[in-house]
Amino acid sequence: MPAIITSIAHYVPSDVYTNEYFEKYLDTSHEWIMERTGIAERRFAKEGANSDLIIPAAKECMEKRGIGPDDIDCIIIPTVTPDHMFPSTACVVQNKLGIKKAWGFDLSAACSGFLFALITASKLVESGAVKRLLLCGSDKMSSIVNFDDRAQAVLFGDGAGVVLIENSDDPDYGLQDFILQIDGSGGQYLKQVAGGSFKPASFETVQNKEHYIYQDGQAVFKAAVKGMADVTVEIMEKNGLRSEDIAWLVPHQANLRIITATAKRMGLEMDKVMVNIEKYGNTTAGTIPICLSEWYQSGKLKKGDKIILAGFGAGFTWGAIYFIWNL
Ligand code: COA
Predict the structure, then answer these.
(1) Mean per-residue pLDDT over the chain, rounded
(2) How many CB atoms lie under 10 A from the CB of residue 85?
(3) Which terminus of the chain is less hemmed in, N or C, by CB atoms within 10 Å?
(4) Nearest CA, atom 32, ligand 1
(5) For residue 281, pLDDT beyond 90
(6) For residue 312, what pLDDT band results from cuts at 50, 70 and 90?
(7) How are the residues of the chain apportioned to helix, strand and coil, as percentages rounded to the nearest 5?
(8) pLDDT value at residue 224
(9) Mean pLDDT across 178-193
(10) Domains of the chain
(11) Measured between alpha carbons, how far is residue 4 from residues 10, 81, 171, 322 in Å?
(12) CB 232 less than 6 A from any atom of ligand 1
């Protein structure tokens, strides 16, 4: 029987950085950023680690479901900005929340992280191996952004979205289908060059700024437009879905132009697309659960809504999920 989302919450830092902030020290403008990306502002955490974004959202998520730390069996954290390379941020979060009898791990799929983790989590609860799973899509992108590079400084933000995954005996709600893909030949276009075993940290790697994001924006843009649109159309066809059947497209928020291209290929009007990129920028693993949480909180996402989640990210990684909202 399908996995369902039984609670949801999100957290974004309170410190807002507008486009005017970047205009002051970079050769850029509010007009350029809005026109090319759709981003007006983003939030950066001045202090703390990724786990500090997760904790408030995770607490709220458990509270809304009326459960506590003892009820969680497993924690999965998709992220590219773990607190440490090891131990996993799942271990840090387990300890900070006082969860006693859980296992868990971090998952590396960049901007597709929430999608890959949602399927992993769903299959764990559907098999009966896990009862209640906390899935925390979260990134503190400000810890790896090169703020001297105008082509990336303006794109990213910090934020966390947390969902509780449980099993259901009603086939009419929850996870219906998914298509996920990876293609390592795209790895060269978007990566963190140093810090792993390929190129361990050294004086040179720091001097060459190789611990920040490296991105060939145009190559990623082209692949993202094609990848996200192809996979959403494929999942619609596979499930006999017409555009009028879909209540919401929930796209990864990397660039408004990628989002509109995907909606167009699906035949969807933009009023059926969740977009909050103007407020938060790209929070990587955070974008999709933050959208879901905001739309649910405001009453726009309703029980029975057929939704398509779609994302594309470094790897390359990409995919789409067909889900019927159950809350
Ligand atoms: N302000 C002003 N000019 C900028 C700028 C900024 N913030 N960022 C880049 N530019 C400049 C470039 O330097 C370039 O100038 P040049 O022609 O003098 O060299 C010019 O704008 C065009 O650059 P280009 O890379 O072609 O712009 P673009 O329209 O492709 O937009 C991105 C750049 C990064 C916004 C866009 O490519 C993008 O969004 N890519 C995908 C990124 C992504 O999704 N990453 C996350 C993975 S999910």
Answers:
(1) 98
(2) 10
(3) N
(4) 217
(5) yes
(6) very high
(7) 40, 25, 35
(8) 97
(9) 98
(10) 3-167 (3.40.47.10), 174-324 (3.40.47.10)
(11) 18, 27, 10, 12
(12) no
